[in-house]
User: Fold this.
Amino acid sequence: MANFVTRAALLVALAAPTVFAQDADIKCSSGSPCPKDKPCCSQYGSCGVGAYCLGGCDPVSSFSLNACVPMPVCQPFDQDSFNNLDGFVKQDEYLGDPTDGAWVYSGEPVTSNGELWLTMADGTVGTLIKSTTAMWYGTFEASIRTSPGAGVVTAFIALGDSKDEIDFEFVGSQHLSAQTNFYSQGVTNYNNGKNITGQTDITADFHDYKIDWEPDTITWYIDGKEVRSLDRESTWNSTAGFYSYPQTPCQIQLSLWPAGLPSNGEGTIEWGGGLVDWNSPDMTNGYYHADFKNIKTTCAATPSGANVTGKTSYVFNDRSMTNQSVAITNNPTVLGSFQASGLDMDFGKSQEKNTTGSIPGQSGGGPSAAGPVDNGDGGSSTSDSGDGSSGTSPSGSASTGFVQGNGGMNNGASSTQIAPEQIMQGSLFAALVAIVGLCVL
Ligand SMILES: *[C@@H]1O[C@H](CO)[C@@H](O)[C@H](O)[C@H]1NC(C)=O
Ligand SMILES: *[C@@H]1O[C@H](CO)[C@@H](O)[C@H](O)[C@H]1NC(C)=O
Ligand SMILES: *[C@@H]1O[C@H](CO)[C@@H](O)[C@H](O)[C@H]1NC(C)=O
Ligand SMILES: *[C@@H]1O[C@H](CO)[C@@H](O)[C@H](O)[C@H]1NC(C)=O
Ligand SMILES: *[C@@H]1O[C@H](CO)[C@@H](O)[C@H](O)[C@H]1NC(C)=O
Assistant:
């Protein structure tokens, strides 16, 4: 139901001033695709190169279908405890090679007692972690102790370049319910959300959340108990002539983000339970946190009838963005530089790493000046306190429309300043810019 309120609100929401834009921010939509020199339409509807072309890149709104970089095929993941951030790559250092790590992140994850904490300090937009590979059906599960706090949202979702989406979302002011949702191609459908009420305090203890995504059925589980299922058959859309059912490869995302920022739309704030209290006793060590462990993903068998010409990457062959448009290929997934795109994967390869102008999203994942304390393993992850300017890439969820990447605030590192993302046209996806909160940094 996040979607109902957020999208309505976002369509009229403020677009933050593009004070740090180096280049004009070029918007994109399926009716208005990107130009050739900035061929990739990011998850939030802005054109660019580099990270704009990686996970979340919308093929239909890009210069051409092959502007977006192919997504690496599904790889299972299974880790119970997290004592360091090995296998987690900062978004602004990631060029598309999943052997660099299973996850990319923006913001500030830390580890504590074997748990992976997604933090959100005052003046930040929290933390987002995305799988570096996509899943074309499969299961994803985790034990989660969700964050309390009005306006504070914990999410565990699958999200595709097509904006197919399957969600668990937890609003921090509602300790006794979990929200489930799904979207097809980012189309708002107010009837898709369902609250699972009657939980014991989900912010107090870990509970197991699992989604089993099959070609014909999606099943949501809490603590091993089925709480919802959705049949593909029930989603037939006679107008569109296909099932409004998630059916294309998706990245798994874990996130903690502030719905309750004054700069957000009224509907978003309301849905999130009000404004975030940045002096709340719920903030430990100066930040809110959502805690994860026992993270496991599995990959379903290749769908029968799939177009398989290789085994390393998913591509889209046509603009329908249905399961039939997906092919499994051996096309490369790694960009030569942050100036490259799917049109010229090796562009800038020999040059030194240069993130300038290539990272969509906005600043704010980082900690406040104090920075979070890694009380687990002696500093695996404290890093870059105050360096909120380091760019990261698109993030967030279509259901919320929240942009969680980095790339914005000027802390003196002006070379990494990026035009913030704004609101995408049309009904596909509304992106929210929450610059005001970030300027606190
Ligand atoms: C779920 O609960 C939230 C918060 O009370 C509410 O905003 C939303 O409308 C509910 N969703 C559904 C589908 O009932
Ligand atoms: C059916 O698909 C069309 C086109 O994508 C969309 O506008 C409409 O909202 C969909 N209807 C439902 C019930 O999902
Ligand atoms: C795509 O979905 C249709 C149902 O809409 C199904 O009949 C077909 O087998 C699926 N194909 C693939 C490749 O998954
Ligand atoms: C299968 O995928 C390959 C690689 O993208 C493409 O060249 C080919 O046209 C596809 N075949 C069909 C029947 O769609
Ligand atoms: C990075 O790229 C930008 C724009 O392409 C360029 O102006 C800048 O000089 C580059 N910096 C380095 C260190 O190569």
Notes: The two ends are 31 Å apart (CA to CA). The pocket of 2-acetamido-2-deoxy-beta-D-glucopyranose (ligand 5) is lined by residues 352, 354, 356-357 (CB under 6 Å).
